[in-house]
C-alpha cells in the first residue's frame, strides 16, 4: 500500500523550492493509476486540469497558503467544473452552476481540486464501492469513504469530508489517517447537500495531526497550526460513555494504552464520569438527525423513492413518524447536555474516547457504526481521530480526542501530543 502523503512536509518542500506543485500532482496521479481501480476512492477526476494549472501557475501557487497541494472533495459538495452526484443515481451527471463555499475556499487558498471523492448515498449508510487501502476486503468507513481512503492510499495530501453522525472520525480511524471534525460551522456548508442542518459539519483528512491542522489553518486563516513548537502536556479526561461495553476488547485496550502513554509523557490523565444527561443526548441525536433528514431529502423521498438505497429509504420512512414535539424535546436535551459538557470540560482540556467500536469490519455491506461519534457530533465540539495504533491483524485502531467548542487549536495540540506519544512507543 502507498503511504499517506504529509501535507505539511510537501508544503515545506514546495516553499523551499525542492519540489513543485506539478511534482506533487504527478505523484498523486501515479498513486491513483496504481491503486484506484482497486480502492475506488474517486467518483470523478480532473487530473489533466490539475496538472495544467500546476505547470502554468506553479510559481504563484507555491506562495499560497496551500502551496498548490492536490485536494479531494467529498461528492456532496457542489462543483461547477466536475459532476456532483451526491452518491446517488438520481443525480448522475449533474453539473451545478457554482462551487460550494468550501470549494471556493480551497481554490482561493491555492489548493488544486484533483477530484470528487466517493460518498455513500446522500452521506447515509448505504455503502458505496470504496475499499479500505489497508485491506480491500474491509470497509473504509463512511460516509466520507473516498476521502479517507484517498488520503490513506497517498492519492491526495488533503481531503474534505463531512460528519453528521460519525462520518469523519470513523473512516479516519478505519483507514489510519488523521480526521478533524471542527467545531460546528467552523467550515461553511453552503453548497453542500444537507442531511441534517443542525448536525452536518465539514472536516478534513490528512496523514497526521500536524498535516490536518496545517490544512485547516491554510483554508481558514485561523491560528490552528500545531507544528511550530512541541505540544504542551494536556489535561486529559478518559471518557468511558455508557456504550463503552460496545467497544471491542482491542479498542478498549487501545484507548487505555493511549492514556497510559500520554500520562507517562507528562499529561495529566484522570477518569471522568459523564453526566446522566449524556445518555439522553445520545438518543436525542437520532431524533434530531432523522426529523431533519426527512425534510432535507423530501424531494428525493417523495419523487424518487425507488431510487434511494434500501437503508436510507427505510430510515426516512420511519422518520416520518417523528413529531415536532419529539424533535423540540430532543433539541432541549441537546442544549442541556452541551451545558453539562462545558461544566465537565472546566476540569480537563480534552476527552479521550474511542473513535469507533473497533477496527474496520470485514465486508463492504456496512460502513460500520457511528456509536462512539454521535454524542460528540450533537455537542458540536471539535473531534479528532488520532492514528497510529493497530490491532493484532494489522488494521488501524483510532482513538478520539474531543475538545471544547471553539477551542479547536487546543484540541489539535492535545491530539498531536497523543499522536507523538503513540509514535514513540514500541509496537504501536
TrEMBL record:
Annotated signal peptide: none
InterPro entries membership: Amidase (IPR000120), Amidase_dom (IPR023631), AS_sf (IPR036928)
One GO molecular-function entry: catalytic activity
Gene3D superfamilies recorded: Amidase signature (AS) domain (3.90.1300.10)
Origin superkingdom: Bacteria
Domain Amidase: 23-410
Family from the record: Belongs to the amidase family.
Record-given protein name: Amidase
Organism: Rhodoplanes roseus
